[in-house]
Amino acid sequence: MENRKKIERISFTAMAVTILTVPLYLLIHTYGQSSDTTLDSAQYVGRQACIECHLNEYTQWTGSDHDLAMQPANDSTVLGNFNNQTIEYNGMTHKLFRKDDKFFVYTDGENGEMEEFEVKYTFGYYPLQQYLVEFDKGRLQTLPLTWNSKDNAWYHMANEIYKDEIIEHNNWLHWTNQAQNWNSMCADCHSTNLVKGYDVDHDSYNTTWNEIDVSCEACHGPASKHLEWAAKAEYARNEHNNYGLVVQTSNIDNKQYTDLCVRCHTRRGTVSDFKHSADIYNHTIPNLPTGENYHIDGQILDEDYVYGSFTQSKMFMQNVQCNDCHDVHSTRRHFEDNRLCTQCHRADDYDTYNHHFHKKFGEQGNAVIADDGVKFAVGEGTRCINCHMPAQFYMGVDYRNDHSIRIPRPDLTKELGTPNACNQCHADKSTQWAIDYVNKWHGVGRPYQYGLAFKEAQTGSPKGFDDLVNIYKDEVYPEIVRAIAVHYLGVYYQSQSKDILYTAINNFNGHIRYNALQSLVVNDQKSLNKVLEMLSDNTKAIRIECATKLNTLQPDQIPVKYKKAYAKAQNEYLETLRYSADFPTGKFNLANYYYNTNQIDKAEEFFKRALKQDDQLHTIKINLALLYNSKGEHKKTDLLFKDYLKHMPEDGNTMFSYSLFLSEQKRYDESMEYLLKAHKLSPKNSRIAYNIAMMYDFENNKTEAIKFLKTAIDNSPNDPGFYVALLQLHVKYQQTAKSKTVARTILEKFPDISDKEQIEAIANRK
Predict the structure, then answer these.
(1) Which residue of 247, 502, 548, 603 could cross-link 595, Cys pair, CB 3.0 to 4.6 Å?
(2) SS3 of 613, please?
(3) Helices 462-473 and 494-504: crossing angle, nearest 10°?
(4) Phi/psi of residue 355, each to 5°?
(5) Given phi > 0 = left and psi -120 to 50 = alpha, else beta, which region is 193?
């Protein structure tokens, strides 16, 4: 009995540690900034100070997307029709009207009741305009009642982006809640020098900006030193300090240039308010093009804001940069037709029928209706972007092009299930139809695409490992793609990839370097040393990730020579957690920090606050259950596990955790019931099979005990612990021949195993 309880308690503790480990950030390297010394002394002066010398640039900027990013609501800025309009959604009639020269809406508020709200600001202008409403504690919230500037019509945003859900007032996604909060979700990319000003203790904001829109200094940095430079006589101007500007925008390469835009034009995490510096990842960590935002081959799925796509592209690899296609001040494209591409690509090679194989504008033919309902007229197939940058709708009406700029690959649709431009337009045709035409026009055989490797890696096969290693090592691939390979090596091949991750940690590219560190599991002295060595890294996100990985250690476990750097990194980590704690996931991470540093009361407070903010974030319930279990409040633990499994009944791993908890409570029959359910849901989890075996052993059911231990071995053939457990069972049940066979297998597979002499004695028994 005591042995079994010990085994189960150890397993439960191990599971707790796993659940409480929360990865936070992804990263890139950046360039093109002046020194932090210049930044610290430079002040924001406002765009009026720029006009005298830069009138042409100012004129181009006026009326641009950046200029109109956010404005006070008035007759000249509001595009929407507020002349007593109505819109139906969720069984309610929402109204838009004017009163005393102000703009109002009548819609469902925080408690679900219909209320009147005044519009304070506009947000954007084309192809849609949104509106902001003031709430208490300094919050601005984004109304779902949205003006379609393209078609001059109102629509309800939730009806477009949450089509399969009914968003009630208590849902985190409701417009009055955090998912639609301007201060944290939108503000930093729509105004200049935005300071979020979140107070975690009072859950309030004091958000400030220098200019309401994206003005000159948002991109060029605070300009006071530049004004000082310009005021000097020409002979007295220093030619080697970038004209006194904080940000260098000329005489830089395309990576440096693109990185100037990355803080807003990417899916990202933030560790602090934006500050122009030499390292953009001191405050911004762009997401890798993986997961739920991208298809496995890197095509856009959810909103990506361009960077994650563009940095995969062959264009980026060939030194193309943002301003080759876009005017940086007007934000418009240089051309709206194929001339945009024929700036570089020869028109007589590419803007011809023998390349695109489509009818020209004006020729006879039939329009096609794409899979998203867009009608493509005859001639649209000749446009480069329609084949190489297919678009899709976001936010209901915003038609955005995929900036990975790729060749249509219907063959990958067949292999990977990813979309292709041919069938996106010709939605009535089959994938094979598209494959046949591509083969007819361009011959059989397509280049290898990294999505194939990423799909293979998800199976955990040896080929998947080899493919990932090849991509990581091959500099022909874009750095962001190589970073994905590093990420997947850590996720799917941790034990095999340790040495590769150690090497990648020292890579010059920030994406690769960070993801190697983020993917590294610290489970031995060598991996611990690697993390300790990086505590003094120049990059804030690296230091924070190190602090994350060391968060469960006690201070006396940190070697003396690292204590100072460790303390600094932990403080930065805590500052970042508090900065992000306006999100429910931020509160969750902060609670985990407090839990791991033995501040149990604070941990409980922030778990509860996170759950109150988003009761659909069910993972919080697991961690809170573990906290209550550590405090001996077992009834609360039990209720939280049950509530979680009610909402997430297919989560075999958490069902396993619950079974271990039940065993600790000596509720063995219930524990066995949940263990068997967990095994059915997660048949490849060796720990579940092992614990089932131990339960059967306790019941002296040797047949089932041995069967499940063999299952554990089949799932984890390189784990010596399961072989030793099987050996112990054969010895216990006096199965001498089987004992000898297993003992010999152990000695052959694990020649350096501890207790080798005892195992040899069993193997050689006569």
Answers:
(1) 603
(2) helix
(3) 0
(4) -105, -50
(5) left
The set of residues, in sequence order, having a beta carbon less than 8 Å from that of 271 and lying 6+ positions away, is: 25, 282, 283, 284, 285, 540, 541, 544, 576, 579, 580
> Per-residue pLDDT averaged across 74-97, rounded?
96
Average pLDDT over the chain reads: 92
pLDDT for position 28: 27
Provide the residue type at 753 as one letter: I
The pTM score is 0.90
Rounded Cα gap, residues 189 and 146, in angstroms:
19
Domain ranges for the chain, please list them.
Answer: 70-190, 291-413, 446-520
Contact criterion met (CB below 8 Å) for 85 and 95: yes
The per-type count for the chain, helices as H runs and strands as E runs, is 37, 17
**DSSP state at residue 115:** E
Q: pLDDT tens digit string along 504-535?
A: 999 999 899 999 999 999 999 999 999 999 99
Give the C-alpha separation, 584 to 607, whole Å: 9
Dihedrals phi, psi of 450, to nearest 5 degrees? -60, -20
Rounded mean pLDDT, 556-585: 96
Helix axes 600-613, 584-596, angle to 10 degrees: 160
Do 610 and 583 meet the contact criterion of CB atoms below 8 Å apart?
Answer: no
Tokens of 292: 């739920």
DSSP state of 199: E
What burial letters (b/e) apply to 236-266, b meaning 16+ CB within 10 Å?
Answer: eeeeeebbbbbbbbeebebbbbbbbbbbbbb
- Give CA–CA dist 225/221, Å, rounded: 10
Residue 754 has pLDDT above 60, yes or no: yes
Q: Are strands 375-376 and 391-394 parallel, antiparallel or unpaired?
A: unpaired
Q: Count the neighbouring beta carbons within 10 Å of the beta carbon of residue 80.
A: 24
pLDDT digits (tens, 9 = 90+) for 296-331: 999 999 999 999 999 999 999 999 999 999 999 999
Which pLDDT score is estimated for 8? 33
How many CA within 13 A on the CB side of residue 144? 26
Whether residue 684 contacts residue 716, with contact meaning beta carbons closer than 8 Å, is answered with: no
CA–CA dist 200, 470 (Å, integer): 45
Q: What is the rounded distance in angstroms from the CA atom of residue 179 to the CA atom of residue 198?
A: 15
The span from the CA of 569 to the CA of 540, in Å, is 8
Helices (H), 394-536: 410-416, 421-425, 431-442, 450-457, 462-473, 479-492, 494-504, 510-519, 525-533
Q: Which amino acid is at 278?
A: A
Residue 101: other Cβ atoms inside 10 A: 7
Rounded Cα distance, 554 and 552, in Å: 7
Nearest alpha-carbon partner for 321 in 383, 263, 267, 252? 252
**Of residues 32 and 348, which shows the higher confidence score?**
348
What lies within 8 Å, CB to CB, of 34 at 6+ separation is 221, 241, 242, 245, 246, 247, 248
| Other beta carbons less than 10 A from residue 683's beta carbon | 12
Q: Record the tokens describing residue 498, joined without a space.
A: 């340790």
Tell me how far apart the alpha carbons of residues 104 and 707 are, in angstroms, rounded to a whole number.
69
Instruction: Return phi, psi of residue 395, to 5°.
Output: 55, 30
- Counting every residue written for the chain, the total comes to 766
Euclidean distance between CA atoms 615 and 518, whole angstroms: 28
User: Alpha-carbon distance 106 to 97, whole Å?
Assistant: 8
Residue 488, token pair as written in the block: 């997947």
pLDDT at 94 over 60: yes
Residue with tokens 């595009």: 79
Q: How far apart are CA 473 and CA 481, in angstroms?
A: 11
Q: 32 falls in which pLDDT band (50, 70, 90)?
A: very low
Contacts 24+ apart (CB under 8 A), 238-243: 241/34, 241/38, 242/34
Amino acid at 102: K
Contact present, 657 and 638 (Cβ < 8 Å): no
